[in-house]
Structure formats: C-alpha cells, structure tokens
Design brief:
3 helices; 5 strands; 5-stranded mixed sheet
Length: about 140
Amino acid sequence: MVRLAPTIDHLKQTCLVDGDYDACTNFIGFRLQASCAAADRGWRLRASATFRPWIVLHNLRQLPHEQEHINDVRGSVERLITAIETAEFATEDACRQRALEERNAFGSRMRSFAAASNARMHPGESRRRGGSGNRAMR
C-alpha cells in the first residue's frame, strides 16, 4: 500500500520517526502462523509469515529505496522461517509451546528487522532517530 503525503508535516505525523526524510515504510498486519507436524524423529514446526508494508511518500523518487527496505525485511523473515522450521522436538507439546512462543514474538521481531534494515541502509543515523523503538523505516 502506498500513500502520498502532501507535506513533510503530514509525512512526519504518519511516520513518527525523528530526522530528515521524505518517505517511510511502516509494517502493519504482520502475523506468523506456526503449527506442528510429525517428522521422522519427532515433531517439526511448519511456519508461514505475512506482513503488509505501508509506504508513505512525499518524494516519489524514494519508492525504490523503500522497496529495498521491504526486500531486506522480507529476507529477514524468510531466514527466520527457515530457522523455525529446522528445529526438531521430541514431543508434540514441546513443539506446540515453541509455536506459541514464535507467534507471540513475531511482532517484536518485525520491529527488530525494520530497525536492522534502517541501520544497514542508513548507517550512523539510528541513534539520532531513537534506535530500534521506531516503527517506521526511512
């Protein structure tokens, strides 16, 4: 979803990130689904994740940059899913407990993935913007 902000003030009201920027991406509607399935030597998690990027632009030329952030976060989510699905559990109860933990932690992980993407693509700026507590990426 892409929204155009008519002014920088409108952009900053939506993005809630300190600093100088003319676009941002918020991740909304994120969810991890995880269930357990019998495997050769016990139980394994089967997982899938969804999220919806909400890009807010004051400068249309920033769209490719915001898409880079989305791809970066998507890669982090894909690596998480791979890691989740490689774990094996001796019992179904242990697997179900881990599935619950992974679902509950996903929101926090998405915020961490967004913060890490910002740090990679905007080195030296994360302290000024308030670090990983921000929900938007610029």
